[in-house]
Amino acid sequence: MATIVVDGRPYEADPARNLLDVCLSHKLDLPYFCWHPAMGSVGACRQCAVKQFKDENDTRGRLVMACMTPAADGARFSIADPEAKAFRASVIEWLMLNHPHDCPVCDEGSECHLQDMTVMTGHNERRFRFPKRSYVNQDLGPFVNHEMNRCIQCYRCVRFYRDYAGGADLDVFGVHDGLYFGRAGDGTLESEYAGNLVEVCPTGVFTDKTLKRHYARKWDLQTAPSICVHCSLGCNVIPGERAGELRRIRNRYNREINGHFLCDRGRYGYEFVNDERRVRRALAPHGPDRSADPLDPNEAIARVAPLLAGRVVGIGSPRASLEANFALQTLVGPDRFFQGISTRDKRLVDTALALLREGPSRAPTLHEVERADAVLVLGEDAPNTAPRLALALRQTAGVVPRQAVAGIPRWHDNAVRELIQDAKTPIYLATPVATRIDDLARRGQHAPPEEIARLGFAVAHALNADAPPVGGLAPEVAALAEEIAGVLRAAERPVVVTGTSCGSEAVLRAAAQVAWACGAGLCCVLPECNSMGLALLGGGSLDDAARALSDGDTLIVLENDLYERTTAADALLARAGHVVVVDHLAHATGARAHTLLPAGTFAESDGTLVNNEGRAQRFFQVFAPSGHSIRESWRWLRDVMNAAGRAEAAGWHALDDVIAALAAARPDLAGVRDAAPSAAWRFAGNKVARLPHRATGRTALHADRSVHEPRAVPDPDAPFNFSMEGAGVELPLPAALVPRFWSPGWNSEQALHRFQEEVEGPLRGGTPGVRLVAPGAGPIPWWRDPPGPFRRREGEWRVVPLHHVFGSDPLSMLSPGVAQRAPAPYVALAPADALGAAVVVTGEGFAATLPVRVLPELTPGTAGLPVGLVGPLPAVVEVKPA
Amino acid sequence: MKTDVKILTAHLDDPAWHTLAGYERHGGYNALRKALKMTPDEIKAEVKAANLRGRGGAGFPAGIKWGFLPKETTKPIYLVINADEGEPGTFKDRLIMERNPHSLIEGCLIACWALRANTTYIYIRGELFSSIQRIERAIAEARAKGYIGKNVLGTGWTCEIHAHPGAGAYICGEETALIESLEGKAGQPRNKPPFPAIQGLFDCPTIVNNVETIAYVPWIIENGGQTFASFGTERNGGLKIYGLSGHVKRPGLWELPMGTTFSYLVNELGGGMRGAKPMKGLIPGGSSCPPLLPNELDTPMDFDAVKKVGTMLGTGCATVFEEGVCTVRLGARIAKFYEHESCGQCTPCREGTGWLHRNIEKLERGERLEGGIQLLDSICGRILGNTICALGDAAAMPIQGFLKKFGDEWQRHIDLGRCPL
After folding, report:
1. In the listed set A163, A193, A213, which residue is the last one of a domain according to the structure?
2. Residues of chain B whose C-beta is under 8 A from some C-beta in A?
3. What does pTM read for this prediction?
4. Is A778 within a domain?
5. Cβ atoms of residues B169 and B187 within 8 Å
6. Residue A8 burial by CB count (10 A; 0-12/13-18/19+): exposed, middle or buried?
7. In which domain, by residue range, is A494 found?
8. Best residue in B71, B191, B204 for a mutation probing chain A (most A CBs within 10 Å)
9. ipTM for the complex?
10. Residue at which a domain ends, from A493, A526, A559
11. Beta-carbon count within 10 A of B35 CB
12. Is the pLDDT of residue A291 over 90?
């Protein structure tokens, strides 16, 4: 640690950091634009100028850019120096020359970094007397709005889009004061990370187009800490609500997982919460047309409660919270609780969990993946199944070359990039089809899952002779395995990435075997947001449910559409005497329900999700839905149990009681209690206010109904108020309870540094969440049975599930923008198998005529089918000319 | 010391001098033969002894710059010739490239030998079409004759020279922007450190020198650094090509000892003013240099002496303007140039040059300039020294110079609401 002097006061500083970083870490106000904590310094905006003095006798000093100046031991600086202050104000003056004065009507107003920095520098007098420059804006697709007139040319957008996220279709054009940041022409931004431009842009050039449709200012948005529900990574998010409508999703920094960035599925998938297909009243559909009468909640409970006297089978869901699933498990008993996923999916997830628990390899966080020095990806198409992981891998690619950089500080972004050029961390990719991160791979293989698994087992054997060999490998595959083994062996922090998406247990086992053989981290992508939680909870598959269900039994389906999971849904539902569906969306299963109970979405309920690394994370209710019908799934189940006179849920007054019951029933999951502070948490007697202290219209919003201020809805489940009253975010809140990033003078998300221990460090008080899964301590459970090679069978095509970031997640598909980005149904075939422009695909109850996409890398005898777009996928199909 | 020696302009009377045969006829490539028998350190010592200062405008001693290369490196070292001559009023490198290109080629070869480099890129401004043609032809001739290539003059040493035409952006004359452009990227200067000598072209150690600087190297090697140095002043060795343009009788280029006075250049060589109007001022070395008044013309034209009178020698190509020239209009034109050529990377230059230009134009049109001359001065003052590269300085310095020397005239524009001339 070094000591630097700023305005006469000594501060501790890490000499490997730059001065701006150090000042912000010490919570000193210093304005900046082009610097970004995740992207380093380029010294372009000149906003962070400070005075540097040679020694204590130097009184003149010279202006330096803090972001380009190392915090060297003994260095002396002044932020308050009059010349430095005047210069910083003049940088703002320059930036404001052409910046429109449209703050009152600008989408960015209230969370504009430019606004904050302008106020911070004190520039307030306009000396520019010319017309402002103006541009033609572009249509950048459904997610990002473009308003170039507001641009201050900080270059952050292109640096994020191109350098950080690997995009190609956004660039900077032109020179001098006529720069243009956009695409070569109108068109949808291709990158699945484009939505981050909304937060990366320090002003209102790139704004959230979905928010624009139902706009509200940041200070009017009710927010609570939440977790993304659109994949298994568990990115931390901040949903914002106003007037009963979810308006947007913002990133919630969690150093170990999402850092500063989200994917567009996570950012824009929220609109199902507002969808007209929402179930908002309890319904009892009847008659041939399934017409539904709305039920009063008590009527609905009274209707279901008597059924509990009979045999009840429960089907849970990997997209429902741990608490909701546990409530159903309690209601039906562990023997009659089923996971609501197909046998194949269950086997995959259970295998993944077993590998993480029984083997010695730990699941790395995304932060750890970003720091790996060698990576093997086996089978997982991360950009489509876990996009934030793919973005992390893009950063991993720079780790090894950056380690070798000597003589240049790491934060000197352009110089470091110049130096490392195309050098990359060794990353090997083996996937069934090409992925959008193939450009990161040193070498790789596109092959059917069996062959991917065989490569993995071969690598494991090459690393450790205890792992069994693989017979009959092609020489080039054997050579590749040797090469990969050599790289992994030499690495200090190797990581193996795999997952369930290619539908192969063998691939999972092979990946684990490699990780065990070289002591690597094992990053395993799972299908859904709570797949891991559900696997931990236990319970059989849908096929098991079908076996357990006797004719006439009551069937309770929790937050699940069985038609997405199995082709046997019709048969299953038909046998039930009474089908109760607890869900927030109307779907095919709900249409077969006898009683439909309206559940809260993630934004209207609290609960715990367990992500792919086994981290239990709490999401908190963002807003209280209007009316009295919608309630948390677990509450419906509790109410039904209580109405039926069952004792188990009698004490479940609030979520904490459910969690306590879960912890008591399942000591292995007791850690869930510590995922976040309980509802009893108080700061000086106060709960945390969900609404910012500047929220407007607290009476006006309801004035059409009553001029009186409505009573805030009480919240027994969380340490938050549905109001402006309570502890604000300027107080030192536990990280899991921070509902938004804001600090006096820092209205944009750049306020983040005030919540971090240091820039890029963990949030104050530590990273939220608790790990429920730990590696085993026993001997390595080597898998001794590698699969044989893939053999094509006549008249048979092995199905390779193909995932789409936009399309494969049904919830986000209710967002119009996401649906617009999704592909139409198709079948992918190898060139040799492409029998025509369209083919008939049949097998295991599956039948469809689909247009053919020819994928040169696909092995003949395999057929790629898009997950989520053509219904449940069979394992094998037959393909015939249409 | 006064001398009649000419080096780079010695044989302009020979119409074939630009060809290899013509160049060899006057002793060309003898210096290379001599150099290849010397050690790199001996060559560097000669260049140091010659007090050869960079002829691109900054006047940095070439010998010292060469010493910045890392002592040990596993990477290739590059020599890059900055032939992106684009400063308004400057046209000296063009003469060398069109009329005496082999002196540059020979200089490159000797410099490469001295720097342990094997590759030279000559980055030529796109508009200098004849220069590009002549340099390309000279390279081809030299390669055919075995001066360039895998086995230079049978020594086994490899040296390649490539001509690379730019696209005409002034900023690409800034050495790091030039490097970016050579690498195929937009010409935007880099933040320094790291300096090119450590991390330059393709991230390898790189020396960037001006055409004229390197073209003098063969003569220095053949005749000795001391001799070259003796032509100039104490810290400014040798000869330099000076240019003269504007309202003089005989504009042109002359090769003179460093330290020759402006008045000698203007009055003796240039023949004085073109007509009856007396001189109003002189821009010493390209449009980025603050102007001099007629009473300052006794200043010797070397880097240090010109600096002492508050301006820069720059490229040594002076522009004279007579009484009756509106300096506001002149300033507006200069400001327009720098606005147009700003790369757009850093704020003070990108925004400041445009604002400055528009304000001066306003002044010139006789419109009210709120904030007055102080506004212009404050814009310049904030740009100066606070940008990534020197383009911001180049834009701010001349305007500040005009304000200092012709402030009254600028003020009268404001007072009268029109040009007083």
Report:
1. A213
2. 169, 186, 190-191, 193-194, 198-199, 202-203, 339-348, 350-355, 358, 362, 370-371, 375, 378, 382, 385-388
3. 0.96
4. no
5. yes
6. exposed
7. 355-361+368-384+395-526
8. B191
9. 0.93
10. A526
11. 27
12. no
